[in-house]
TrEMBL record:
InterPro entries: DUF892_YciF-like, Ferritin-like, Ferritin-like_SF, YciF. It comes from the Bacteria. PANTHER family: PROTEIN YCIF (PTHR30565). This is Ferritin-like domain-containing protein. It comes from Hymenobacter lucidus. It holds the Pfam family DUF892. The lineage of its organism: Bacteria, Pseudomonadati, Bacteroidota, Cytophagia, Cytophagales.
Amino acid sequence: MFDKLKSLDDLFQEQLKDLYSAETQLTKALPDMAKEARDPRLQQAFDTHLKETKNQLARLEQIGRGLNLELDGHTCKAMQGLVAEGKETIAEDATDEVKDAALIAAAQRVEHYEIAGYGTAAHYAERLGHSQAAELLRQTLQEEQATDTLLNNLAKSSINAKAM
């Protein structure tokens, strides 16, 4: 964390560190969510998103190298809280169908947080003239939006009905 954010560039760098921490934490949480999911399509969605998340971390590392910015050393407290809530969901005594619905709800909270973060960071990158970083951040933003849509469709098409 910076002692003081003095410019949009300082804020952009702080946002990148926050996203890096968030994605790092998520790579540790997604395998547990996939293991706990009972619907095979939900398991596949979590497994697929884990692979995407690893690629997203690589993109952030590429941005960090391009800006000569070390991304380690920051902890995203928001993701800590979201991951903790996900662990609580996993620990709940619930039917398989209700657990799957709860896992989707927890995962969508994570996706919405990431969508907000990547959208903001992409805007900052563009504003600051970091066009390559902006493009990489927008690519990740599109993946996060697609994952959210997939989870929403799974919930609406079958999982929530089964949980009733």
